[in-house]
Structure formats: structure tokens, C-alpha cells
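We treat protein structure as text, and this decision shapes the records that our systems exchange. Such a record has a labelled line for the sequence and another for the C-alpha cells. The record that follows is passed on verbatim for readers who wish to inspect the format:
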Amino acid sequence: MKRRAFLANAGLGSVAFFVPNHLLADPQSILANGNRVSLECLGDKPGARFLDGRTANGTVGLVPQIKTKTFSGTQWLVHMNSRTQQVFLECRGTVEGPRFLDGRTADGSVGLAPNTKKPFTGALWQAVDLGNNTYNFKCLGNIEGSRFLDGRTTGGSVGLAPNTNPPFTGTRWRVARYPQCTDDPCD
């Protein structure tokens, strides 16, 4: 009898094993492919909190609020591979320039890349769901080094941290749908 129970359980386990990941992904997730979102740093120090891509010069930083005219780089388009749960984040700033959030693991910096192909392997991120639309973003770049997106709220800068433990409290990010503004009341 034990053998039969084992085989039944093994059979069920193998059926679950063959279900493609993209069928298991939550289409209602805030990080669903095609969503436009903002990322708010939840660090424990006061200061600027919203991730802002500066497409004119390929840099990123933190700004105090979401404003579509003043800080157009606070809007990010999600490119989620539901099969792997890996994501590219594309800055939708109004100025032409590099757009993809890029972790540079060799030196711990973060900027914008012009595309997601090699050599920009740091443009691929693993979104680690912490619940309540809060995430850690782990850079999947090919070079060893610090990997976690870290907002430094007191100075308004962004870099990579080696882990998500204190003192790296800026590695937690609240993701929200970007405000739908008409006639720019968000400004």
C-alpha cells in the first residue's frame, strides 16, 4: 500500500512539474507585462523616494514626487517574462536617450542602458515579491558584485547593495500603477 501511495504522489508531482510557468503566473500582478508603474523606495531615512530615469544623460536618481512634466522619468514600463519571472524596466521619460534600468555589478552603480542586449546584462532583474506590492530587485548581470537595487533617500541617489539586510533599507520598493493623468493634473 505504501508503494502505491508513493507512486500516486509521484505521479501528481510530475504533472505539476510539467505545467509551464507562464500558466502559473498571476496576470493581475502589478508587475504584469505592459503595466506602467512607479517605484517608491521604502528606505528608513527621510528624503526623495521615487525612482527617476534621466534619459537625457542615462542616469537614475530619486525624486520627491511623481510629476509627469517635471519628472517624466518616474514612469516605468514593465517587460515581464512570466515564464522566468524576470523583468526589464523601461523608463518612459519624454526626452530621447537610454531607457532600460541597468545595474552595473562591477562597480555597484545603476543607470540606463540603450537596450537589453549584451553587453547590458545588468538590465535584467529578478523581482522578489515581499507581499503588498513590495519588491526587492536583484540585478542578474553577468559580472559578480553587488546586486540589489538600493535607493539612498538622504542623497537622492541609487546604487546596488550587496544584500537586503540593514543598513541597506533602501532595497525595498513599493510598486504602484502609474497615475493616469489627463490635462496633467499630476503636475
Q: What stands out?
A: The mean pLDDT is 85. The CA atoms of residues 35 and 78 lie 5 Å apart. The chain is about 10% helix and 35% strand. Residues 2-17 form the longest helix (16 residues).
